[in-house]
Specification:
The chain is of the alpha+beta class. It is built from twelve helices and eight strands. This is AraC-like DNA-binding protein.
Length: 291
């Protein structure tokens, strides 16, 4: 069975001897990892990359984004992505584990930042050309600290990381990418729901199951999702199933009937009907069109 590779931080260059944080200039990073970046793959860490030059495309979970100077992309663990460049990219990249950030900021979570708030939020922000240099200087400072051998290095990196994320969140929200989180309780419930769906979507497709698991009513759970994402619980469940279906259709050698079984549908005809309702094309059409 063909599977999508999942890359860990330990697979990358470690001159700095850190197991939970990595930084590099983009040109050098892509050169060292040329066998990965143009093929679909996943990460088990959070990733942030700034482009100061270059052009191309970035596909993240079947959504295609334009790469250009001033683009900053964010990826969460488990997302499938790859790059296609038309001209040589330049910039900076860093990635880190969730534990790296939350160890140093025990009362804060990565998901408080709007680009990590939900998989439904756009994974990029565009920095105006006259502000790129200032933002680049922050990435340069992170990169220099990463390769330094100074005392309190992890603490400094954590504080630089937090500062960058705060500045990027301000840019992100100023562009109208995401409205303010309505309440911390709603935010926590949404995050818990996404984690539950990600764990159980193959076997549990009922909105009531997830409401019961969260110890709230189905009506209240729908109210939370309407407020935060303008979706229903059922929509969120089905979107996760469809995403995995697309991944398996494109990145595995499984037959369509095998994929339907993997996703918990014993009857392929029923799965095909559901897929078409959600995507407006049947599985065979999707696979053919994507290829």
């Amino acid at each position: 069975m063909k599977t999508i590779p999942i890359l860990g931080i330990e697979q990358f260059e470690h001159q700095a001897q850190l197991e939970d944080f990595y930084s590099n200039n983009l040109e050098h990073h892509l050169k060292k990892n040329r066998e990965y970046f143009h093929k679909p793959h996943k990460h088990n860490f959070f990733l942030c990359v700034l482009f100061t030059q270059g052009s191309g495309l970035h596909e993240i979970d079947f959504e295609t984004y334009t790469v250009q100077a001033g683009c900053i992309f964010f990826l969460r663990p488990g997302q499938t992505h790859f790059w296609q460049f038309n001209s040589s990219p330049q910039g900076y990249i860093f990635f880190h584990t969730q534990e790296f950030f939350e160890f140093h900021f025990t009362n804060n979570k990565l998901e408080q930042f709007p680009f990590y708030y939900s998989f439904k939020n756009p994974p990029l922000v565009n920095i105006a050309l006259d502000k790129i240099q200032r933002m680049e200087s922050k990435f340069v400072e992170i990169n220099k600290e990463y390769y330094s051998e100074l005392p309190f290095k992890k603490q400094k990196l954590a504080n630089l990381l937090s500062s960058v994320y705060i500045d990027l969140s301000r840019h992100y929200m100023a562009q109208g990418q995401k409205k303010e989180v309505i309440s911390l309780r709603y935010f926590s419930t949404l995050r818990a729901l996404e984690q539950l769906i990600d764990k159980h979507y193959r076997s549990q497709k009922s909105a009531k199951y997830y409401a019961d698991a969260l110890h709230i009513s189905s009506k209240h759970l729908n109210r939370i999702l309407r407020t935060t994402l303008n979706k229903t619980t059922t929509q969120l469940i089905m979107e996760r199933i469809m995403l995995e279906a697309k991944r398996l259709m494109v990145h595995s050698n499984n037959s369509l009937s095998e994929i339907s079984e993997i996703l918990g549908y014993e009857d392929y005809a029923h799965f095909s009907k559901v897929f078409k309702k959600m995507t407006h094309m049947n599985p065979k059409e999707f696979k053919r069109n994507y290829n």
